[in-house]
User: Fold Cytochrome b5 type B from Rattus norvegicus.
Amino acid sequence: MATPEASGSGRNGQGSDPAVTYYRLEEVAKRNTAEETWMVIHGRVYDITRFLSEHPGGEEVLLEQAGADATESFEDVGHSPDAREMLKQYYIGDVHPNDLKPKDGDKVRSYYFVFSWAYWIVPIVGAILIGFLYRHFWADSKSS
Ligand code: HEM
Assistant:
């Protein structure tokens, strides 16, 4: 087993716990063989080397994901609560904060972007519409 690269706090020190060992993804990616198999599931790093031969879904599918983020494949299979419980015994640390996907942050930013436009567009379109209707009915009432 390789020496873990305990890399301390993240760039901004956010969310890093001194009790947790953090691994860079490049470090995880090196453990992609049957001799040493690590994988990432939901931002956590697992050393599943000794689990390979015990996996009910077979060794092959695990080796395909070795050294990588297997979150999607793990969830796609719809693993049971027992399987999730088993993960704990293979847990060795967390993905380094700098390597975490900024998925949720991106979502928040894109919602903000869309809504910030909506705040402008809705009143402007509304005002144009009201102006149009007003002129239309005003012209109608004048001509009759
Ligand atoms: C360390 C992580 C994993 C653990 C602890 C684990 C555990 C298990 C367990 C206990 C089962 C039996 C069914 C259940 O209880 O859900 C199972 C089935 C299975 N697993 Fe995993 N698994 C892991 C990762 C993966 C990954 C990354 C894949 C990728 C494709 C995978 C694919 C499957 C498949 C195909 C089955 C068979 C499902 C079936 O026959 O219905 N597993 N796994």
Notes: The first strand starts at residue 22 and ends at 23.
